[in-house]
Amino acid sequence: MSASDYIALAALIAAVGTAIVGVVTGIVDRRSARRIAEEDRRTQIDLARQDRTQARLATELEYAIRLSTNRNMGGSTDPAETKRLGAEAMALALVVGRRWVPEQYDYLTEGKSIEQLRATFDNPESPEWVKWRNEAAAGVLAIVEEMHSNSEAPNGDEVGSHWSP
After folding, report:
1. Is the residue at 119 inside a domain?
2. 142 touches 136 (CB < 8 A)
3. Whole-number mean pLDDT of the chain?
4. Is residue 39 part of a domain?
5. Is residue 164 one of the residues assigned to a domain?
6. Percentage, residues of the chain above pLDDT 90
7. Do residues 85 and 51 lie in contact, with contact meaning Cβ atoms separated by under 8 Å?
8. Residue 42 has pLDDT above 80, yes or no
9. Range of 121's domain?
10. d(Cα 77, Cα 89) in Å, to the nearest integer?
11. What is the distance between the alpha carbons of residues 112 and 130, in angstroms, rounded to a whole number?
12. For residues 154 and 94, what is the distance between their CA atoms, to the nearest angstrom?
């Protein structure tokens, strides 16, 4: 073999080595890119969950403040205003939920689930105002449960676990 053959062989070996290094580098880069992308996805999911949790807490806080204000008004001598304040307090307690105001929540729902509240509407012996009240309460509870169906309770409870008895 001549010197030019050795040079050509060395060039060939160098080219094959470079190609192998390039392929290995590409494989490692793809793996790293996948790992980084997966970490980014997990981070985005965690951030979205935190955002939903904070939005849920903000909503609960807003209604809890309104409920507290309502309860601290000291009542009224006007029967119509007394009824209005009581109705508002009921709606607010249902939205705030059992987790934050368990005594009021259980008192207002009489320990009944959404389905049980709705069933009283079919009872012919129930006064009309009780039927309407229970239907409204069931509606509020169903809306709140739907609102929070995509979020996680801040204390790790199962979704909707404190919204219905």
Report:
1. yes
2. no
3. 82
4. yes
5. no
6. 10
7. no
8. yes
9. 3-147
10. 17
11. 13
12. 18
- How confident is the model over 20-36, as pLDDT tens digits? 988 889 888 888 889 99
16 vs 24: CA distance, rounded Å = 12
pLDDT at site 164 = 39
**CA separation, residue 66 to residues 18, 70, 82, 109, 130 (Å):** 71, 6, 16, 19, 24
Extract the tokens encoding 96: 């705030």
pLDDT digits (tens, 9 = 90+) for 73-105: 877 788 888 888 888 888 898 888 888 898 988
**How many domains does the structure of the chain reveal?**
1
Nearest to 157 by CA among 67, 93, 97: 97
**Radius of gyration of the chain from Cα atoms?**
32
Mean pLDDT of 139-150: 79
